[in-house]
């Protein structure tokens, strides 16, 4: 799936730019997913396998961006 490859490439790029132990620790703790895609197993399962890292989903991920924007105003 294209989204899985795009996210995996972004994480790989982040590690290439900052291969410090701190970045690796963040990845080991897990990537946090937000948005409607976080509710789709056809995205989360392949992404977990591709990153070889755990994924965490925020509560009500489909509304998290709106709630975050409202919180900062």
Please provide a written account of the structure:
- The chain is mainly alpha-helical and 73 residues long.
- Strands 1-2 form a two-stranded parallel ribbon.
- Helices cover 60% and strands 8% of the residues.
- The protein is globular.
- It is built from four helices and two strands.
Amino- and carboxy-terminal Cα gap: 36 Å
**Main pleated sheet:** 2 strands, parallel
Q: List segments where confidence is low: pLDDT < 50 over at least 5 consecutive residues.
A: none
Order of helices and strands: HHEHEH
What would the average pLDDT be, to the nearest integer?
81
Please give the share of residues in helix: 55-70%
What is the tally of helical segments? 4
Entry summary:
The chain has helices spanning 2-17, 21-29, 41-51, 64-71; strands spanning 31-33, 55-57.
SSE blueprint and pairings:
Elements: H1 2-17, H2 21-29, E1 31-33, H3 41-51, E2 55-57, H4 64-71
Parallel strand pairs: 1-2
Descriptors for this entry?
73 residues; mainly alpha; two-stranded parallel sheet; 4 helices; 2 strands
């Amino acid at each position: 799936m294209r989204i899985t490859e795009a996210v995996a490439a972004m994480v790989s790029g982040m590690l290439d730019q900052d291969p410090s132990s701190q970045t690796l620790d963040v990845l080991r703790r897990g990537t946090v997913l937000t948005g409607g895609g976080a509710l789709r197993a056809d995205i989360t399962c392949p992404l977990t396998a591709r990153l070889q890292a755990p994924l965490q989903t925020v509560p009500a991920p489909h509304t998290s961006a709106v709630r975050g924007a409202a919180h900062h105003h």
